[in-house]
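Record pair follows.
FIRST:
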Amino acid sequence: MKPPPAGPGGAPDVSVVICVYTEDRWDDILAAVSSVRDQSRPALETLIVVDHNPALLRRLAKTFGDDGAGGAPDRVRVLANAGPRGLSAGRNTGIAASTGEVIAFLDDDAVAERDWLRYFAEAYADPRVMAVGGRTLPVWESRRRPVWFPAEFDWVVGCTYLGLPPGRTEVRNVLGGNASFRRSALTAVGGFANGIGRDGNRLPLGCEETELCIRLTRAVPDAVLLIDDRSVIHHRVPAARERFAYFRTRAFAEGLSKALVARSVGARAGLETERRYTTRVLPAGIARGVRDALLGRPGGAGRAGAIVAGVAAAAGGYALGSVRARRGGERFAPATVPGAGAHTGPAGGPGRSAAPEGPAAAGPVTEPAKEGTEA
């Protein structure tokens, strides 16, 4: 495998894609773009992909211009999602329109720290590296974490959860709101699958990165996928997502999504990480909660109870999703990014779809800690 063309400092050029869908996040969108412009290692370009919202598209085009005026590193392009509604198609639109050797994705309600892209780019000096994710920290609207909210479940609000090993480490999959991929990796697998990722507030709400990364490591067996906790973004958590009702609903939705992933790539690959998470990370979290409750510390019992409730909700979602998948009522199709190579379909063969081996509790979408790394 030949090393990619190098950008500044010998690292490949990076395009940044920000997918947006609502004017309610206008200030967040502007802050996200501003954080990309302030990077210590400039992005080649920033692409804002608007998901079927003509008013927002016009407003952004008026703000940033239709021709990417400003020149690198301030070049911002505003695009309409060229595929069906949803985050996966929006990302595929951004991939197709981008020109960088590496494509990084940033959530529209997050801001990146100044060295975010620098650490991403440095990792790609190794030609085996096909994807690099970072650390996502919550910014609670209430200004502090709810005392009952377990850090082991921070994936519920799109953030890095307690249990991940520190530093730069290999993982099964990255978390899409703070991640990057080598272009050759994305074209090898045909891009993100439609029908599984976020689509406004509809369910299911995630796991498209898990599914893509599993397909990627099958298509490129020597691929290395990393998380580097120095590539940091700060993700806004609105008040509505600090409530237990959202926590439970989002955990249930994760179970639904994991059932679709298991149907696509097989339960062994689709749930291997989640089994370790539920047998190592979560029991330790429950034990800490119970210990804190016995010591009279605030929130201990609530955190232990929330972990149990979250696991139960995710397991329920997985069970329902598995039934729907078996009946053929819930499917998703891997898309093809323009310019990508032929895609052979999920599970490594044309039209093949591996059924899940059985229900299992679904959890986060990134690699949990190795033994002995729990805080």
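SECOND:
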Amino acid sequence: MLHNKTIAFLGAGSMAEAMISGLVKSGKIAAEQIIVTNRSNQERLSALESNYGIKGVKRENLQFDQIDIFILAMKPKDVDKALIDIKSHIKPNQLILSVLAGITTSYLEQNLHKGQQVVRVMPNTSSTIGESATAISPGHETADENVNLTKILLECIGAVYKIEEKDMDIFTGLAGSGPAYFYYLMEHMEQQGVLAGLNIETTRQIIAQTIVGAAKMIQRQDKTPTVLRENVTSPNGTTAAGLDALDENGGGIAISKAVEHAAKRSKEISKQLQESLLVGSLK
């Protein structure tokens, strides 16, 4: 389904690069079918061309009628200008995927064509290695076939979950910010490994494999995290001692609060962004 599709990234930032890297590494879509464009940074386009074998094109040279899927990947504050630029060049049946944090499908629909095919998507940084947790939320008039196409495309960079747009903030708290929680956990585990005498490279690999293995057990079994935790926790054993220390130091509460606060901040940023865009449009 992807072999005859041409994809254009409008924006060349870090998330665009993460997705490009994952798509190219998947081998499910040819690099020459991927185009990336920005307004003026030719050096950035050249670097992406060189690194991934894709095509870098200046915005004014993009042949819009030859593109099947546009991925909006510019800075969210620049979305108004971008939508004005592309509206006269695109058709309602061309699929628009937006990775713009805080920008709703309704906003995109209102500023493009009636019946515009729009899907809001949110990958995380693990898309670079094809292991992203990606949420998708289609617009009100987006056809099922385009939702399926979006899912197939994004499965090239990891697992895809269709959710309601109102749940994008909690998804951000869980998956968008989630990798940082694991890195934070690893940092502190690593410190203890090194203090105990292990070299840092071995310590890091041990912890990483432990986390990967535990995650795969969740994915491959029907048991809940609670049951799996209880199964490896013997009374008065080493795991119980570690978990007691976590409880005594607010570990569980801290993790819950991290997710809660990230989701809350996502909602705040979205509100602030929508308000600033509205003010800008009234000037």
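COMMENT: The chain has eleven helices and eight strands.
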